[in-house]
Description:
The chain contains 18 helices and two strands. It is mainly α. The protein has a two-stranded antiparallel sheet. It starts with a helix and ends in an 8-residue tail after the last helix.
Amino acid sequence: MYRVWNFITAYSILLISGAVIALVWANTNPDSYHLIVEYPLLFNGWIGVDVGHWERALGDAVHHFEYGDFERVLTFHYLINDMLMALFFAIAGKEVWEAVILENGSLRGKKAATPLVATAGGMLGPIVVYLGIAYFLGSTTFDAVSRGWAIPTATDIAFSYLVGRIVFGAGHPAVRFLLLLAIADDAVGLIIIAIFYPSGELAPVWLLLSIVAAASAFLLFNWLPRYLDRGDQLRSRSTWVRKKLGWMPYAIAGCLSWFGFAQAGIHPALGLLPIIPAIPHADRAFGLFAEAEKYLTDTLNQMEHTLAIPVNVVLFFFGLLNAGVEFSAISEATWLVFAGLIIGKPLGIFLMGWLAAYPMGLGLPAGMRTRDLVVIGFVAAIGFTVSLFVASAAFVPGPVLDAAKMGALFSFAAVFLSVSAGKLLKVEKQNG
Length: 432
């Protein structure tokens, strides 16, 4: 439990604190809460959100620039959700990239086959439950909430990993299975956000800026020094680039890529992802949250660990600016998201996991039983961070968004269901 507590303090305390503060604040003084969330910081013609409601609220206190028919303003909410959360998704993208590309990556080969099939079930199940119940509630409700179908597909890597360790024990193969599933889930989730939830009118030509930035960073600061170091055991050119330039070239390329995504109409929080493959990385990965990775000297891992504290601060503000929902906002969307996570996720993971393990003949990891799939399904039903993010991308501010966010927050009930299912199904904890 000491290691688990270290994990909580490193990855979760600030996020939870921000969410709790937001809930209390929004339910005691909602006007001041929303005033801070949408407070205008910097005005610009291509960034931010519509300022109409701010004009109505503050009158002459808000001055903004107009660019033809297009007027926008930078708020705290935009700063965190669309700009700084790019750092969080970059770290998630780094783990996915290593899991796929490295020889010992967790998403390579047959060992990842069953978790990947179970991941498909963990995404299809929530969609079917969410849209199915919405359909039976009538066309008015369906039309209002249908855009949020992807909200319950999310699995919060950090919290699901934590709960998985508590339920199964750190040494149980189900924890590794769950981690593979959560990483794959986030990978697909990033694709869903990019394709189905554009942040504006699509202008794909701007993606060329992201592609050129990533390609230039890779060729000039990664591939070229290594090419010139052929036969040089000291790798003098690569060492010079790493020591003198550090990760500045990739930071510049990241800014250009982010701008390209913003202009292309794709959610800019994903804007750093194209740069991840361009950054020099280690030959092996020790696994998500592995302490050993902090001792690796490759640029990609150094960047991740340098960003760890800033990203945790960002997650605090993400919780603070997104979890502030009044309990009076609970409505159909709340229960649809909740049902998608609590019912659809476990059902989909169990059915598809069983299908992969037996009819498809892919099997389960040694030491893992079929009943463990049920418990994994409940653990993976914790949506929280990514569900809140998808909700903000799916709906405009208003009652439906607030109700959907409350459903994402309610997904913490999966913690109690996971522990209960573990005891009921007699999970054999392995702490080795």
